[in-house]
Specification:
Length: 128
């Protein structure tokens, strides 16, 4: 269930459920949290030095961006995804720059494309 559907059910349980159901519901949640922390600890004990390094980098970068605990995607995937996004952003910015400031028209292109050559001559006349 999604959280919006589960919330009314939890409110109902809090109001009307017997003590035993409330107790074991809370215990299940605490057990889940404990299991996740034990799994994380075991994973960290089994990590290689490189995996540990990337795990710390990824956790720090996520915490710096969002202020939250790291997401549960694998660390190596997260590292290379962030690296890829940064590279793509650089390419996008370079293309935007080239669109705003196109390079000068080469003589070969101007020779075979009269319309571009005429635009080039007009631009030269306006400048000079």
């Amino acid at each position: 269930k999604n959280k919006s559907q589960a919330k009314p059910a939890l409110e109902f349980v809090d109001k009307y459920a017997p003590f035993g159901i409330k107790y074991f519901t809370a215990k299940a949640e605490n057990d889940r949290i404990l299991r996740e922390s034990q799994r994380k600890q075991l994973r960290e004990e089994q990590m290689s030095d490189a995996a540990w390094h990337f795990a710390n980098l990824a956790e720090l970068s996520v915490m710096a961006r969002t202020g939250d605990v790291a997401e549960t995607i694998p660390v190596a995937i997260q590292h290379f995804t962030l690296e890829d996004r940064a590279r793509k952003e650089g390419r996008r910015l370079a293309l935007q720059y080239l669109k705003a400031n196109p390079p000068p028209l080469s003589n070969g292109v101007a020779h075979f494309n009269r319309q571009l050559a005429d635009q080039r001559k007009k631009a030269a006349r306006q400048r000079g």
